Model the fold of this input.
Amino acid sequence: MTQLTGPVLLALALSGAATSDHDSSKACAAIASALPNLISFPNSSPYSSHNIYWSARQSEARPSCFVAPNTAQDVAKAIKILTRQNIPFAVKAGGHTPFEGASNIAQGVTLDLANLNAISVALDRKTVSVGAGARWINVSEALDPLGLAVVGGRSATVGVSGLILGGGISYFSGSRGWACDNVRNYEVVLASGEIVNASPRVNRNLYWALRGGGGSNFGIVTRFDLASFDQGELWANSRIWPGALNRTLIPLMHDLLVNGLPSDPEAHTYFVMTYYPQLGGYLVMNDQYHATYSNTTSPPDVFAAFHDAALPTLLTNTRLANVSRLLRDIEQPFGMRQAYWDTSLAATATPDLLLDIVPLWEEQVALLTAAAAAVNSTVEPYLVYQGISSNILEAMQVNGGNALGLKPEDGPVMIVQLSLTWSNPALDEVVETSSKELIDKVNALAASRGARSKNGYIYMNYAADTQDVYAGYGRENLARLRHVAKRYDPEGKFRKLWRGYFKL
Ligand SMILES: Cc1cc2nc3c(=O)[nH]c(=O)nc-3n(C[C@H](O)[C@H](O)[C@H](O)COP(=O)(O)OP(=O)(O)OC[C@H]3O[C@@H](n4cnc5c(N)ncnc54)[C@H](O)[C@@H]3O)c2cc1C
Done:
């Protein structure tokens, strides 16, 4: 980018902006003076390349400028200017949040952390330091050749930051907990611009809060020091069955969560139901992983029931693969409109509850299919079941536990997630309202069977912006999170200026 200074810069900043954008454009100009070459303005190619998000709902926002810091010190300089001038801003890492305004902002400044992408492995191979702008494929491509892995995401371009800060479900969670449970240290820029570390030794409350408590209330994390471990190829199997088999598969899935997975912590799995007329209508899809098994001719015992000949598949694929290849296998294309909603259930309830959710979801699918047909378009609907088995809950308790409020004594939990993909903005409203209604119905059904999870936990990384995520962390954890936010941002600058996502 050409270096621009003084009045020329201010004129350029203001020329690309609406009047109501005036203040943020002045802030952009001030940041450009402090951080020459790290800022881009509308109608330039660097700006367009920052404004790429997984969900089209996010890339529609047009910030007055993007700022792309190279170092934690650059982040601190930008934050000082934004907080001093009271300028609303957003922070983008991997940009994978589905809803608008989560990591981009209209009439404000978006900090894109993409350049904070350094990855370095400690000499003892036990810690990998990862810049906050890295994506999981960057991490695995650095670690696979070394025979190392970390507890991280399962899709290539998802950001390291957002996934860890909200929790982080991984192939390795059965033995090691979620990604947030495997951070040794966070480097964080506070609202004051001060750069601090948070670990089990320093700023312990902040360390606890950043383990699942989300980023946007506490500070901008600029580096994660992650626990790494030796890891070869994983065993992986993907299966697709006709939807009609769900009456057999769901009880098996329930048994796997309650009994099977705790008996083999190296195993990991999730189930996805979808409606795909080209393959005959409703489908059940299942990905199974095992971190140490290597026989491709028969499955590990924990998954044997799903490989029974009485459950004929439409498609199956077994492979031994490194993390990078697995991440690419479930990469989702950019540029469509996206929505996530979720809730969770006490998995100790009978499998009937999980079965009875399916017809409720099918009602939503019928509604959305009709609404899409009316505007000559389509919607891809997914109902996802991902369990948090008792072994995962136990692994989450290391180093003082995380902020999520999930305890082994409350029993395993099933996350029920809705994921929707479409292209026509005319469908936005019906997608959101029907998803809210469905989640309300699932919660009511679970309550009537005594099967709401404790506190009604909602996984932040799969939640819609209107869901009350923090209420699900429990009253005590919510009070502690608020206390930490106040301690590290006493003037509430982040609460006021850092827009989007979930606020305490
Ligand atoms: C295709 C796909 C696959 C997924 N797979 C998984 C999975 O395997 N496991 C799982 O648990 N989840 C998964 N998710 C959910 C994912 O974890 C969340 O969407 C996550 O928030 C994405 O992070 P991001 O950095 O890409 O998003 P962003 O939208 O960039 O960031 C999310 C939020 O975090 C804030 N933030 C970003 N960086 C920082 C930082 N450095 N400091 C403080 N705050 C920050 C942003 O401001 C924003 O509010 C997946 C999502 C998708 C779309």
Remarks:
- The domain at 119-231+477-496 is CATH 3.30.465.10 (Uridine Diphospho-n-acetylenolpyruvylglucosamine Reductase; domain 3).
- The chain has three domains: 6-115, 119-231+477-496, 234-468.
- The pocket of flavin-adenine dinucleotide is lined by residues 54, 90-97, 102-103, 113, 132, 153-155, 158-159, 161-163, 165-169, 215-216, 220-221, 332, 461, 500-501 (CB under 6 Å).
- The longest helix spans residues 351-374.
